[in-house]
Records
---
Amino acid sequence: MLHLHPSLLPKETLFTDALHHLKDNESDLPSDSEYSSSASDSGFYSSSPPTLQPSDHGDMSTMSEASAEPSPSNMKVLDIRSKTVDSMADSTHLARVVAQTLSTRDTVFPASSARFDAEQNGKRPTKEDGAMTPIQDVLVRSIPTLVLYDDNGLDIFNDITHVDEYYITNAEMQIFKDKSSEIAHTHVGNNGVLIELGVGSMRKTRYLLDAIVSQNKSVTYYALDLSAQSLTQSLQPLALQFPSIKFVGLLGTYDDSLLYIKEHLTRDENSTRTLLWLGTSIGNTTREEAAEFLARVKDCAMQEGDVLLCGIDRRNNASVVKAAYDDPKGVTRAFILNGLRHVEHIFGGERDELFPLSKFEYVSLYNAELGRHEAYYRSLEQQRVEVDVDNTSHVFEFEEGELIFIEYSIKYDGKDIKQLMDQSGLRWAKEWADQTERYSLHCFAK
Ligand SMILES: C[S@@+](CC[C@H](N)C(=O)[O-])C[C@H]1O[C@@H](n2cnc3c(N)ncnc32)[C@H](O)[C@@H]1O
């Protein structure tokens, strides 16, 4: 049975005009009528995720049949994918974007990275016309990092968070275990709102929710991610465990969420917002993009007194970082290669039809000079891939050895954080470090 990622279905298949039907406010969930079991008229994804056959596209009855388990009444999931600006969480648009990014070489592969690739992997990329000189920057193709997070990718990412070498999760988990009480006391207002971006499995958030409830505070928790299935699965146990908290899953991208917050979240006077961006997700954008995004978060989603709690990895020892992103069991490798499977899927290809995994490898390298881990695919042979998007054919000719960029994991030392604050206009307020001092949860204020 094929498990279809909700973003692979036409939007109308899952939800219709959720935003027009729902008038959210921070303290109230939509009325009972909006909790109808039919996703088609409520924009509300009220139960366990559907498992659909490809032939079920557009067939709402299958969706309803799959919605067998009732959802806790303090929880809902909304489709907030923008209808005015094409959302990257929409598979049709994503296919267009990937076709375009694979058609152009516009991502810099620095000379220093070529040196690190040679040192760490014993290889270096080629140019179409021959071997590359490692003292030169070259341009490579890229695929948007977001393709890594389909349902399967989210499952594998969850496995990564249990890998010993991936110190990041344990470090952040420990900070939340130790400091949630202080965070809830100082940074979460009663009747306030928590908004978490890119929630994943929410393993750490549980500690904060527990502390909030222990302090008899009432909050609404908005959880954003790219998969309705994953949101539903992760939110359900939390909603059952914390009945006094209102849970709202938001299906969409970071950009969609800023639009949604700006347009749909009204604000009670005196209520505060606490934003969370954990798992060093900020590292998946360039330093410039991170500063620009934080500036938009500040302008669209925060008022004076609100805070953003942002988990950020430090510039740690190179071998520690390298092991975290290239673990001996190959979990990260599987995660990255799944991204190619997802790309194949959004182009409508069968398994291994367009991007056979035997013809690509995962390239992990830590560029200590730039303070960033870089993940690429390397084409193992010369190959030609042809895809059709919007009835237009796109042909990609990959050279043997050619690199395709997929993900940065950028690290921040004190100087980098200061620059991030200067560029974003946010104010650094506080930092909690884990016991090994490899990782920090920063508190940024407006
Ligand atoms: C590095 S994982 C972190 C997950 C979780 N916060 C943690 O700490 O373990 C990044 C998360 O952000 C989500 N994500 C990635 N890009 C996104 C985007 N553009 N918009 C919304 N969510 C995104 C992914 O689906 C994933 O759950």
---
Amino acid sequence: MFAAAKFVHLVSLGLVALAIANAFLGPRAARAAAPVRNELFAVIALFGRLGRIGLLLLWLTGIWMLFDRYGGNPAGLPATFLWKLGFVVAATIGVIVIDYTPWRHHPPVVAIGGLIADAAIVVAVLLAVLTFN
Ligand code: HEM
């Protein structure tokens, strides 16, 4: 079962990567002519949704693996794991702010919040690799 959880964990990271692609698609959509812009915004919305599903699955499978193999206690793992959790929390807060609060209607907040969430996820991957290699 652990392998199944880790498989889903890594596939979920692929879903999150789609949302990271929105950092490149967003500026293109803003510059594009109306019909193309509408299409790009539809793709951006889809990637955002898939990314949110991926982040939720990362939490669920991560907690699952933590209990399955490490007794549910993150303190028993190297400090890099706690740092990883910190960056995951930062990414999650960023996603909540840009998708579920009134700030989601403010393009500068969405752009900066999105970049912070993207960077936090990349750092979380680095810290995961350093923890479990
Ligand atoms: C943005 C969120 C997350 C990302 C990008 C992420 C990324 C990764 C990656 C890349 C690995 C594989 C590391 C390797 O084998 O070298 C991994 C493993 C793991 N992650 Fe996450 N993770 C996230 C969230 C979480 C959360 C929320 C938890 C727990 C609360 C968690 C717990 C674990 C555990 C326990 C393993 C490894 C298990 C093992 O192979 O022994 N992850 N994660």
